[in-house]
């Protein structure tokens, strides 16, 4: 019997909402039930790869840490390189760094200076778009290495936080919006 294709509604239903994690007031979107279901995981990776075919993307860039899981699988599917953007202090070689504001305090992400060649066609992947600060910082890092961002894609978008505003002018796509 043929396997039923995965719909975004299948993915939406599997995402688990965990109230007050990691702190009071945060509704944490837990993607482990999606990752833990072979059909949903494969379907999600297929949907994130989207309209791209092997040869059309040079590098899939994943954001530390849940973004790695999805981006590495998308990179394999598209026969592209996988490139990590990590929290400051984790990458061993020379890096560019970019800070961004959080509700309280700030965060810094880093990218190896030689992670991609200039003009690289990059697909940026993360699990979730909230305020957009993380993705914005990732795009700034990709500018430093002269990459061309073809698309920024997320499994989940928290629409009420307006993260897209932060990424205005960039091609943003998400599978499931809450
Ligand atoms: P932001 O920079 O505000 O867009 O936050 C996005 C990053 O924080 C992503 O890498 C997510 O993994 C994580 N994140 C933010 N809010 C949530 C949430 N409610 N549930 C799960 N992860 C979240």
- List the ions, cofactors and other small molecules found in this model: adenosine monophosphate
CATH class: Alpha Beta
Main beta sheet: 7 strands, mixed
Task: Examine the coordinates and then state which fold CATH places here, giving the name of the CATH topology.
Answer: Rossmann fold
Q: What is the architecture at the second tier of CATH?
A: 3-Layer(aba) Sandwich
Strand tally, please? 9
Task: Please indicate the count of domains.
Answer: 1
Task: Kindly estimate the percentage of residues that lie in beta strands according to DSSP.
Answer: 25-35%
Q: Helix- and strand-based class?
A: alpha/beta
- Tally the helices: 6
Rg from Cα: 16 Å
Unreliable segments of 5+ consecutive residues: none
Account of the 3D structure:
With 178 residues, this protein is an alpha/beta fold. It is built from 6 helices and 9 strands. The chain has one domain: Rossmann fold, CATH 3.40.50. It has a 7-stranded mixed β-sheet, sandwiched between helices. It has a two-stranded antiparallel sheet with strand order 1-2. The longest helix has 13 residues. Bound molecules: adenosine monophosphate (AMP).
């Amino acid at each position: 019997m043929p396997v039923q294709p995965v719909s975004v509604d299948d993915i939406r239903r599997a995402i688990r909402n965990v109230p007050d994690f990691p702190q009071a007031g945060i509704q944490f979107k837990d993607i482990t039930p999606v990752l833990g279901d072979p059909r949903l995981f494969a379907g999600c990776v297929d949907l994130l790869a989207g309209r791209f075919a092997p040869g059309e993307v040079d590098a899939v860039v994943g954001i530390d840490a849940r973004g790695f899981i999805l981006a590495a699988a998308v990179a394999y599917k598209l026969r592209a390189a996988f490139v990590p953007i990590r929290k400051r202090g984790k990458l061993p070689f020379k890096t560019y760094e970019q800070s961004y504001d959080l509700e309280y305090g700030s965060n810094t992400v880093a990218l190896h200076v030689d992670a991609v060649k200039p003009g690289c066609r990059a697909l940026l992947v993360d699990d979730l778009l909230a305020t957009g600060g993380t993705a914005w910082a990732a795009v700034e890092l990709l500018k430093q290495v002269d990459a061309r961002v073809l698309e920024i894609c997320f499994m989940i978008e928290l629409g009420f936080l307006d993260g897209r505003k932060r990424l205005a002018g960039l091609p943003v796509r998400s599978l499931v919006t809450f």
